[in-house]
Hints:
This protein has helices at residues 14-21, 24-29, 47-56, 77-84, 129-141, 173-181, 225-236, 246-249, 252-256, 273-278, 321-329, 343-351, 450-455, and strands at 58-62, 68-73, 97-103, 109-119, 122-127, 147-151, 163-169, 193-198, 201-207, 215-221, 241-244, 287-288, 334-341, 373-374, 376-380, 383-394, 399-407, 415-420, 437-444. It is α+β, with helices and mostly antiparallel strands. A six-stranded mixed sheet has the order 8-9-10-7-1-11. It has a six-stranded antiparallel beta barrel with strand order 13-17-16-15-18-19. Helix 6 packs across helix 7. It is globular, with a radius of gyration of 22 Å. The model is unreliable at 1-5 (pLDDT under 50).
Amino acid sequence: MTASPVPAPASETLAEGIARAGSAEQLLRHSPARPTVFPVTAEFSNWRSEQLSWRRSCALLDQSHHMTDLFLTGPDALRLLADTGVNSFARFAPGGAKQFVAVTEEGLLVGDAILFHLEQDHLDLVGHPMVIDWVQFHAETGGYRVQLQRDGNSIVRRGAPTLYRYELQGPTALAVVEQLIGGPVPEVRFFRTAEFEVAGHRVRALRHGMAGQPGFELFGPWAQGEAVHDAILRAGADHDLVEVGAKGYSTANLESGWVPAPLPAVFTSASTAAYRDWLPAARAGSLGGSFASPDIEDYSLSPDDLGYGRSVAFDHDFLGRSALEAVAAAPPRRRKVTLVWDRRDVAAAQATLFDEELPAKFIELPKARYALHHVDEVRHEGAHAGLSLDCGYVANERSFLSLATVAADLADGSEVVVVWGEEPNSRKPQVEPHRQVEVRAVVAPAPFPGYASSRYRTS
Length: 459
């Protein structure tokens, strides 16, 4: 029988948790923390039809509950973000938004989030807690003149969110918005915001698209959310609008090519020691997947490994700049790709559930990730070739896909093997006794769909 993980003290810091477990890898490998949960309706109809909606009509996705907001106000708010972000802030003005990327002093990825410039000296950083924690730590310890308001997701927060967020995307999304606002949609560049009036309320709208399709993210005060939501449903009735639940929504990133939770590189270096003393161990998350190394640094990634090199701007001083300058001068190590898993091998792995011998790790559908930080081994011709980081089934492609970072010289069309399952099995409660299996896969672009690859940033 597999032993249960030893509960950690509620007040334990990350540094203390690592010392108790013996290593960062062991702490995360056996952590009871679950993968990201979308605390909204699982399915309004069925996740297959809901996935199809963002390609065929218009999908409505409720983003109000699963992300963390960090509101920053004060004269040093923008300076704090420029000091901790690799992005350029030279022309970042109210009404703008960007994918904020943070790294350590060694130039290794901490995480990413969406940054909204709401008003002068008032910004909102929205995403998973990894990068939120990092920025909050530097705000609290760096002497910045900034005030913070943290609004956790609906799993950890008591009470209602500060803001509602509703994503509209798909071929008919703009028609829905036109009917919603009673006139033409204004020209808004990608990742810029506009303001609409909906149901008598002022609504901010980010030009955005989570799965490579055109659309808007509408947001505003929570108290107005129900009225706005009802108005969206009425406008969408004429345009085949489909409400998408948690199961379908969780797979949208597999089409757009966004990796949601790479492991932050904060567990060993001297430069992050103070952060480990500050961060509660409970917020470190869990590690799962077939890639196994006792050295947690083997899981670390650079921004280039995930395609974020284009976001790095050397027009300002920021944490990790010197290290990233060296990366920029060197040949690329890895590149982000989509892996298309062999359908016969996936089916064979699932079929082992009916064998008398020990089965393969269960492949949950539509999203198969079973830890917050999921890292599977990718091999090419028997040798290590990269890391598979997020995986699931996409009805739009009738394919099981994963997002991965692989050797830069591994061409599209190359055949690789993804190792599925852990050996030995970890003590995470979501991991049953199982055996590892190999699944063949083919390297493809990320984003994977032709529409997303050619038009995502121009439509």
